[in-house]
Design brief:
8-stranded parallel β-barrel, TIM Barrel, Immunoglobulin-like, globular, alpha/beta, Jelly Rolls, Glyco_hydro_b
């Protein structure tokens, strides 16, 4: 507190001597809860084609023929009467992780034979971009074997090509790079096989040259940039329900997602057929985006990694399958080994693998989730075993624990009470509710036990019925309700240590769940109004909460206003966030109680729309976006004229 007092004196703080009961009084001289620098983060789950077909920049679908239907995504190209043919071969006894490959046999050089890949709802190809093709091939039984590659647009016109000669009597990786001369949202790749004899092909791949940080086989640059612009404090991965799987056999197993990409074992994505009205039979997980890439992404964007691991329970909304308690040791060992993979020295087994993958330095893992949305006594029984083993070996690791899929009710109450009695580290609360619920819950944490576990608002989104149910995109009503609710999270930063919206990404033609924070197609992406709300919070983080009061009470709905305030001791700034959720203008004076002198002008960021059903779109990606306005203080008052349905962030030097 001595440091805080010195800081406040250095800023020239003193008490304001007067204010009106309806003024907003920010008590700058009364710093309270510490705000964690990583409070606002993001939650990634492979839903809505968020990984394959989205963040992972691979353009070829089913590149190693491992889908349940091995030729899904592929089409044979050949002349009528041609004797050329292909056959999918399974070598599971030799390679269980990548058992299938395609064998093409051509008897006559005059026989044109090819394979066409449709991509993920097509392939997004940009004019002037370089594309990197690679394939594993065995041409030992062929003569003059070569590949002729074509990118074709929606009209079948060639927009890029290359050729590749194949030789050798064993499996070998081949690669070639070529440019595109046109843009197409739904291009396809033709792989023509020329020569005679038999040719084996596997891992047929196409990536843009320009990926995030120009990493070969990397991530889609525009999508990562949207995340980087958020400046998130953490990234939770890989889910979500895919951690659980519908059955345990299809749970997420991190060890199968690291090492050489061609050795990672593909599995079905649990969102493949979860919803009959949004069935996605071609949705699988190739794990080209695996745990190493998740850790690397977190490091790239300055976020702490928060991995979530299966606790021996499949999704309770599906099979509700559990592993027997006496057989849970391998699940716990996976958790211990993950900590070694992230933090261990290069002399350790898993630390060495991390180094071999190109990252000798530790990833500085500090927290880990045990299960996703589990509930009931069976979860408590398994949590205890995980907690005991992890804390014994790695006592500094903080554990994030489920309190079920709902923010209230019997399931929530049982886990909330039980885990508190067990002195759990962090409780993960989820809420997908109406905008009205979010407004009503803005004071949810005001009365929480200050000495109990920390709260992680791990998944939240306001679901409104104002948008077209066939599209269900995010509108301004939902975003504004979230902005108001988040003032309550920030005000209670001594209890709520982390928060993240969910889900993060959605492909415009491949989504299962809506609303979502960021929407994309094969060429473009945009942030929703909810995205900009999140960005205003993540980009305006204080270090200590200070009271923001009206009529000597916290502002959590009075006069349709919601507010929070903080100071940043590092930049010597005061940050005030205010939401006006009403349909009328509001004019309020803000009293910075304790500031001796106000700036001559204050730059204010405003996010507003008079249409609560307003949305952003591919045609109007910035229909609702932040704007800068200027406020001129009068004496010790800051007059703020708030538009209907608006959110403001004031940030000023002290």
């Amino acid at each position: 507190m001595k440091k805080i007092a010195t800081f406040l004196m250095a800023c020239g703080l003193m008490h304001a001597h007067y204010s009106n009961a309806q003024d907003i009084v920010v008590q700058v001289h009364k710093p309270q809860a510490v705000i964690q620098p990583n409070m606002w983060g993001v939650f990634f789950e492979d839903i809505n084609l968020a990984a394959d077909g989205g963040l992972y920049a691979e353009l070829v679908k089913n590149r190693s023929f491992e889908f349940n239907a091995p030729m899904m995504g592929w089409k044979e190209l050949k002349k009528e009467g041609s004797s050329a043919a292909s056959l999918v071969v399974n070598r599971s006894a030799v390679d269980d992780n990548n058992p299938r490959f395609i064998r093409v046999k051509i008897n006559d050089e005059k026989d044109a034979y090819g394979l066409q890949n449709e991509g993920f709802r097509g392939m997004g190809i940009h004019q002037g971009e370089q594309y990197n093709f690679s394939v594993w091939a065995n041409a030992s039984a062929g003569k003059n074997m070569r590949l002729r590659l074509e990118l074709i647009n929606e009209q079948g016109k060639e927009i890029g090509n290359a050729s590749l000669s194949l030789d050798g009597n064993k499996w070998k990786k081949y690669a070639v790079s070529f440019p595109s001369n046109a843009t197409a949202e739904k291009a396809k790749l033709n792989v023509w096989i020329e020569g005679t004899g038999t040719l084996d092909l596997d891992m047929i791949s196409l990536f843009p040259q320009h990926t995030w940080k120009e990493r070969p086989g990397g991530l889609r640059a525009d999508l990562v940039q949207l995340l980087a612009d958020l400046k998130p404090g953490f990234i939770r991965f890989p889910g979500g329900c895919i951690v659980e799987g519908k059955e345990l056999v299809n749970r997420y197993q991190w060890k199968k997602t690291v090492g050489n990409v061609e050795d990672r074992k593909l599995i079905i994505n649990r969102w493949n057929n979860e919803f009959a009205h949004r069935s996605t039979p071609d949705y699988f997980q190739s794990f080209g985006l695996g745990f190493f890439e998740y850790f690397q992404l977190a490091e790239d964007i300055g976020a702490r990694p928060l991995p979530i691991l299966n606790c021996g329970m499949a999704c309770q909304f599906n099979s509700a399958e559990v592993v027997a308690v006496e057989e849970i040791d391998p699940y716990i060992q996976d958790a211990l080994d993950l900590i070694e993979f992230a933090n261990g020295g290069t002399e350790s087994k898993w630390g060495k693998l991390r180094a071999d993958m190109g990252h000798p330095a530790p990833f500085n893992l500090q927290m880990m989730g045990v299960g996703n949305e589990q509930w009931g006594s069976q979860y408590v029984e398994r949590y205890k075993l995980f907690a005991k083993a992890i804390k014994q070996k790695y006592p500094s690791i903080q554990l994030v624990n489920s309190v079920g899929p709902f923010p209230d009710g019997d399931l929530f109450n049982f886990l909330n009470d039980t885990l508190r009695s067990l002195h759990a580290d962090i409780l993960d609360e989820h809420y997908y509710r109406s905008p009205e619920w979010f407004l009503q819950q803005a004071k949810r944490y005001d009365s929480y036990d200050r000495n109990g576990p920390s709260i992680f608002a791990g998944e939240y989104a306001a679901h409104t019925k104002l948008t077209d149910e066939a599209i269900k995109k995010n509108n301004w009503q939902s975003a504004l309700a979230e902005a108001a609710f988040m003032t309550g999270l920030e005000r209670n930063a001594d209890v709520v240590k982390m928060a993240s919206y969910a889900p993060l990404f959605a492909h415009a033609e491949g989504w299962q769940w809506a609303p979502d924070l960021i929407w994309f197609n094969n060429l473009k992406s945009y942030g929703t109004p909810d995205y900009y709300v999140q960005k205003l919070y993540t980009n305006n983080v204080g270090t200590r909460v200070v009271p923001a009061l009206m009529n000597n009470a916290v502002i959590g709905g009075a006069d349709s206003l919601y507010a929070s305030a903080s100071i940043n001791e590092n930049s010597h700034e005061l940050i005030i966030k205010i939401a006006n959720v009403s349909a009328v203008k509001k004019t309020k004076n803000i009293v910075a109680d304790g500031l001796k002198k106000l700036p001559k002008e204050i730059s204010v960021t405003m996010l507003a729309s008079d249409n609560v059903a307003g949305v952003n779109s591919f045609d109007q990606p910035e229909n609702i976006k932040p704007a800068q306005v200027t406020v001129v203080p009068s004496k010790n008052l800051i007059p703020l004229k708030m538009k209907p349905y608006s959110f403001y962030v004031l940030r000023m030097k002290m």
